C-alpha cells in the first residue's frame, strides 16, 4: 500500500510537466496554429528559470523568468507563423532547433550547480485522506498550480465566450473574419499562452522535478506533448489522463528496474511513450466526437483581407 | 415607394492586381426595398458586397448610410450599423451549435445569458417561419437550415439592410418559395434587401428594382418585373453573346449503363453514403440528376468514375461489370468524367493545357511504347482549343490561368474529342459565363446526338429541364425514380429533392 501510494504520487509529479506543456499546446492548436517549437520553448523556460532562481535566490522570480522566456520564444514564432503567415511546421521546427541550441549556450555556465527547488507543501485536512491525500494534496505548489490551470482551461473552452472565439477561429479563420472576429489577435494570444505554459513546464523540470540544469533536460517531452494533444482529440480531460499515464509508465520503468526486472533498459525507457500513445489511440476511436473537437484549420496559415 | 434612402453608393472603385473588379459603381437602395444586383460571375457583384459589408475597403468612392457619409472598416462595424449579410458559402462554424454561432456575432453582453438567447432565437425564427433548434450542431443541419441560421443571425441584430448572396442556389423550389415570403414580410416591415443573383425569373418575381453589372460597371438599372428575362440577360452579357441553346429532341437507343441497388458507405461521419441507387441510361440520351449540394452527387460521380470502389455486380456498362474496374480501365471502355472542381480534379492548374490533355487522353495515340508523342499531344490540344473556342494564348498556357468558362470548355472538349460512350458531368456550367455555358450545352447535345449517353449532375434546374430526357433527384444518398422531363412538374422534382420519393410516384419511372 505504502509502495503503491508512493508510485501514484511519483506518477503525478512525472506527469505534471507534460500536463503543463500539453495544456498550452492544446489552446494554441485550438486556434488553428500548430507550434512544433514546444521542446525549444521548454528548454528556454528551464534554463531561464534556473538562472533567474539561482541569481536572485527566489523560486518565484525563476518561475516568472521561465514564463517570460517561453512567451518571448512563442512571440518569435507567432511573428513568423501568424503575422508573416509562414509555414507553421517549418517555423515551429526552427524554433525547437533554435531553443535547443540557445539554451545549451546560455546554460553552459550553470551545469553542475544546484539550488533548493520547490518542495512538498501538504494541504491541511485534505492531505490526511488515505492515498488520495498523499497523491494529490501533499505535493509541491506547481502541481496544485497545474491542476488549477487544467480546470481553468477546461471551463474556458466550454463555458466562456473567449473559448467560443478560440474554437471558432480554429475551425475557420475565414468565417471568423467574415463574422468580424479578430483572427490574428486570437491566434497571437493562443500562441503566447502556449509559450508561457511551455516555459512553466520547463521551469518545473529545472526548479522542482530535478532542481538543476543539464543540456537537453526536457528529453523529448515537448514532442510527446504534441502527440498527446492530437491523440487526446483536443480535449483537456484526456490531456490530463494522458499526461498521468505517461507519468505512470515512466515511474513504472524505474520500479521494474528496482525490482530487478531482467530486460534491457532501453526497452523499458521506451515504455512510457508507447503506453501513452497506444492508450490514446484507443480512446480517440469515435470519429464523430473527434471531429467536433478538431480545429479544422490546424496548420494552415491565414492571410486576412481578401 | 417613396421611402427614405437607406444606402447610396457613389463611384465605388476597387482594384485587385490585374483586374478592376469595381469600376465606378453607383447604387441606391431605399428603405423597405428589395433591390436586385445582377451580373455574371466576375461582373463585380461579390466585390461590391464585400465593400458594403466592410470586408474590403474601396480604393475610391463614397458610401452614404441613411444620408450620412460612412466608412465601413470591418464587418463588425457594418453589423453595428444594421447591415447583415448572408454569404453564398456560409460563414458558419460547423463544430459549434446554432446558438453558439449566433452568440459569436452578438455583442458580449447580449450573448451572456444563453437561456435568454435560445429563447430569442426561437422567437425570431418562428416569427419569420424559419423553425430552428438553437441547441443543434450546425454540422447536422441541411444546407437550407444553415441558411436560416445565417438569416436569423442577421435578424436578431435588428438589421435594416440584409444582403443575400445567391441565396437560392442551394435550395429546393419549395424552400425558395418559403424564403421569398420571409423576405417580402421583412421588406414590408421596412428592412431593405439587397438580393444578389443571376437567376432572372426569381429576380423578376421578387425584386422591386435591379442594378445590372457587367465587367465591373453598371450596365443598367431597371424594374425587373417590367422587362422580360431575355431583355435583362442582354443587359448582363452585352449584345454579342448567344444566351440560349436550341436543343433538338433525342432518339435514345439501347440501354448502355444499368446501375442496380448501388450501395456505398462513407467513412466520414458527416459524409453522405449512397443508398440503393438505381438508374439506367440509354445511348443518345441525357439523364439529369438534381439535388441540393451534399446529398451524394459527388459520391455518385466517384462511384461511376471508379474513384471510390463499390461492390462489384451493381453496375453494368454494355456487357461489362463496371464495379470491378479501376478508373483507367473504365476510361478505356469509353467512360469520361467531368468532375465538379475544375482546378485540382478536372485539370492540374500549374500544368499546361497540353499536359492536361495528356492526363486523360493518353489512350488516343498520344503515348507510344511508353514514350510521349509531344507533337501529337500539342496537335490534340490545339484541336480542342479550336473546336471548342477556348480563349487562351495557346496550348502552352497554364490551366490555372484560364477563366472558369474557358477552362471548362477545354475540359469538356478534351473528353468529347475522345468519343466517349458515357460522359458523367457534374455542374459543368457552375460559375461559367453565359457564352461559355451555351457552348458547353451545345457540346453536350452534340455528343448525345452522336450516340453518347450522358449523366448530367447539376443544381441548375433550368439547365436540367433544358437538356435532359429524363430527370431524377438525389437526397441523402438516395436517388428518386427517373421521370421523362416533359412529364415532371417542378413541384414534383422539388419534393424529390427534399427526399419525398413516395408522393406521386411516376408510373413509368422504370422506363
From TrEMBL, chain A:
Molecular function as annotated in GO: transmembrane transporter activity
Assigned keywords, A-Z: Cell membrane, Membrane, Transmembrane, Transmembrane helix
Predominant subcellular localization, coarse grouping: membrane
A Pfam family of this chain: BPD_transp_2
Domain of life: Bacteria
Keyword Amino-acid biosynthesis in annotation: no
Name of the protein in question: ABC transporter permease
Organism: Marinobacter salinexigens
UniProt lineage: Bacteria, Pseudomonadati, Pseudomonadota, Gammaproteobacteria, Pseudomonadales
From TrEMBL, chain B:
Membrane topology: Peripheral membrane protein
GO cellular component: plasma membrane
InterPro entries cross-referenced by the UniProt entry: AAA+_ATPase (IPR003593), ABC_carbohydrate_import_ATPase (IPR050107), ABC_transporter-like_ATP-bd (IPR003439), ABC_transporter-like_CS (IPR017871), P-loop_NTPase (IPR027417)
GO molecular function, one term: ATP hydrolysis activity
Localization (cell): Cell membrane
Membrane-traversing stretches: none
UniProt name for this protein: ABC transporter ATP-binding protein
Keywords: ATP-binding, Cell membrane, Membrane, Nucleotide-binding, Repeat, Sugar transport, Translocase, Transport
Record-annotated ABC transporter domain positions: 7-240, 257-501
CDD domains: ABC_Carb_Monos_I, ABC_Carb_Monos_II
Zinc in keyword set: no
Amino acid at each position: 500500500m505504502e509502495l503503491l501510494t508512493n508510485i501514484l504520487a511519483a506518477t503525478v509529479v512525472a506527469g505534471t510537466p507534460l500536463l503543463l506543456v500539453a495544456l498550452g499546446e492544446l489552446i494554441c492548436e485550438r486556434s488553428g496554429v500548430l507550434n512544433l517549437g514546444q521542446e525549444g520553448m521548454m528548454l528556454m523556460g528551464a534554463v531561464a528559470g534556473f538562472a533567474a532562481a539561482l541569481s536572485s535566490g527566489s523560486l518565484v522570480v525563476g518561475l516568472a523568468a521561465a514564463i517570460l522566456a517561453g512567451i518571448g520564444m512563442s512571440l518569435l514564432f507567432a511573428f513568423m507563423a501568424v503575422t508573416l503567415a509562414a509555414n507553421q511546421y517549418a517555423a515551429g521546427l526552427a524554433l525547437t532547433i533554435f531553443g535547443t541550441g540557445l539554451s545549451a549556450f546560455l546554460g553552459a555556465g550553470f551545469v553542475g550547480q544546484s539550488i533548493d527547488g520547490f518542495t512538498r507543501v501538504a494541504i491541511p485536512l485534505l492531505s490526511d485522506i488515505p492515498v488520495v491525500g498523499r497523491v494529490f494534496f501533499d505535493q509541491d505548489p506547481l502541481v496544485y498550480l497545474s491542476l488549477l490551470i487544467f480546470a481553468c482551461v477546461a471551463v474556458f473552452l466550454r463555458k466562456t465566450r473567449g473559448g467560443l472565439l478560440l474554437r471558432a477561429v480554429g475551425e475557420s479563420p475565414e468565417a471568423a473574419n467574415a463574422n468580424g472576429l479578430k483572427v490574428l489577435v486570437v491566434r497571437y494570444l493562443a500562441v503566447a499562452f502556449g509559450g508561457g505554459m511551455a516555459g512553466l513546464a520547463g521551469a518545473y523540470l529545472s526548479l522542482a522535478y530535478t532542481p538543476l540544469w543539464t543540456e537537453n533536460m526536457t528529453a523529448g517531452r515537448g514532442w510527446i506533448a504534441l502527440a498527446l494533444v492530437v491523440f487526446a482529440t483536443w480535449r483537456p480531460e484526456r490531456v490530463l489522463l494522458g499526461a498521468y499515464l505517461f507519468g505512470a509508465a515512466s515511474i513504472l520503468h524505474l520500479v521494474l528496474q528496482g525490482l530487478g526486472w531482467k530486460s534491457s533498459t532501453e526497452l523499458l525507457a521506451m515504455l512510457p511513450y508507447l503506453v501513452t500513445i497506444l492508450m490514446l489511440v484507443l480512446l480517440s476511436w469515435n470519429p464523430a466526437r473527434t471531429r467536433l473537437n478538431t480545429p479544422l484549420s490546424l496548420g494552415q496559415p491565414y492571410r486576412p483581407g481578401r | 415607394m417613396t421611402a427614405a434612402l437607406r444606402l447610396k453608393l457613389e463611384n465605388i472603385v476597387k482594384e485587385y492586381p490585374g483586374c478592376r473588379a469595381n469600376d465606378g459603381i453607383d447604387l441606391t437602395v431605399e428603405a423597405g426595398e428589395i433591390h436586385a444586383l445582377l451580373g455574371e460571375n466576375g461582373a463585380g457583384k461579390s466585390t461590391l458586397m464585400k465593400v458594403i459589408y466592410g470586408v474590403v475597403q474601396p480604393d475610391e468612392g463614397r458610401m452614404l448610410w441613411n444620408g450620412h457619409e460612412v466608412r465601413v472598416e470591418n464587418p463588425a462595424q457594418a453589423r453595428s450599423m444594421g447591415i447583415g449579410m448572408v454569404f453564398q458559402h456560409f460563414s458558419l462554424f460547423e463544430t459549434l451549435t446554432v446558438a453558439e454561432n449566433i452568440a459569436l456575432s452578438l455583442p458580449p453582453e447580449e450573448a451572456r445569458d444563453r437561456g435568454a438567447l435560445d429563447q430569442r432565437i426561437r422567437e425570431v425564427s418562428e416569427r419569420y417561419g424559419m423553425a430552428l433548434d438553437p441547441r443543434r450542431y450546425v454540422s447536422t443541419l441541411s444546407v437550407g437550415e444553415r441558411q436560416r441560421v445565417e438569416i436569423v443571425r442577421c435578424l436578431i441584430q435588428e438589421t435594416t439592410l440584409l444582403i443575400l448572396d445567391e441565396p437560392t442556389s442551394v435550395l429546393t423550389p419549395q424552400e425558395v418559395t418559403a424564403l421569398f415570403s420571409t423576405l417580402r414580410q421583412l421588406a414590408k416591415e421596412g428592412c431593405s434587401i439587397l438580393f444578389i443573383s443571376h437567376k432572372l425569373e426569381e429576380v423578376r418575381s421578387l425584386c422591386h428594382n435591379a442594378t445590372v453589372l457587367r465587367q465591373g460597371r453598371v450596365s443598367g438599372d431597371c424594374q425587373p418585373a417590367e422587362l422580360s428575362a431575355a431583355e435583362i440577360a442582354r443587359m448582363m452579357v452585352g449584345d454579342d453573346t448567344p444566351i440560349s441553346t436550341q436543343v433538338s429532341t433525342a432518339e435514345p437507343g439501347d440501354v448502355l449503363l444499368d446501375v442496380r441497388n448501388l450501395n456505398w458507405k462513407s467513412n466520414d461521419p458527416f459524409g453522405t453514403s449512397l443508398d440503393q441507387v438505381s438508374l439506367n441510361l440509354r445511348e443518345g440520351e441525357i439523364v439529369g440528376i438534381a439535388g441540393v449540394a451534399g446529398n451524394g452527387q459527388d459520391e455518385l460521380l466517384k462511384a461511376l468514375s471508379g474513384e471510390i470502389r463499390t461492390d462489384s455486380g451493381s453496375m453494368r456498362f454494355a456487357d461489362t461489370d463496371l464495379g470491378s474496374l479501376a478508373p483507367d480501365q473504365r476510361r478505356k471502355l469509353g467512360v469520361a468524367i467531368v468532375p465538379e472542381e475544375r482546378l485540382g480534379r478536372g485539370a492540374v492548374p500549374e500544368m499546361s493545357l497540353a499536359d492536361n490533355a495528356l492526363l486523360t487522353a493518353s489512350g488516343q495515340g498520344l503515348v507510344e511504347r511508353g514514350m510521349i508523342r509531344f507533337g501529337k499531344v500539342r496537335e490534340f490540344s490545339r484541336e480542342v482549343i479550336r473546336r471548342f473556342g477556348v480563349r487562351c494564348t495557346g496550348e502552352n498556357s497554364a490551366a490555372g490561368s484560364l477563366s472558369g468558362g474557358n477552362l471548362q470548355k477545354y475540359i469538356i472538349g478534351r473528353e468529347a474529342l475522345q468519343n466517349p460512350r458515357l460522359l458523367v458531368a457534374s455542374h459543368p456550367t457552375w460559375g461559367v459565363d453565359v457564352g461559355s455555358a451555351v457552348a458547353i450545352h451545345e457540346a453536350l447535345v452534340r455528343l448525345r446526338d452522336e450516340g453518347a449517353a450522358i449523366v448530367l449532375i447539376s443544381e441548375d434546374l433550368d439547365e436540367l429541364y433544358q437538356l435532359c430526357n429524363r430527370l431524377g433527384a438525389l437526397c441523402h444518398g438516395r436517388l428518386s425514380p427517373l421521370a421523362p422531363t416533359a412529364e415532371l412538374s417542378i413541384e414534383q422534382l422539388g419534393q424529390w429533392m427534399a427526399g419525398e420519393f413516395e408522393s406521386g410516384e411516376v408510373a413509368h419511372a422504370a422506363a
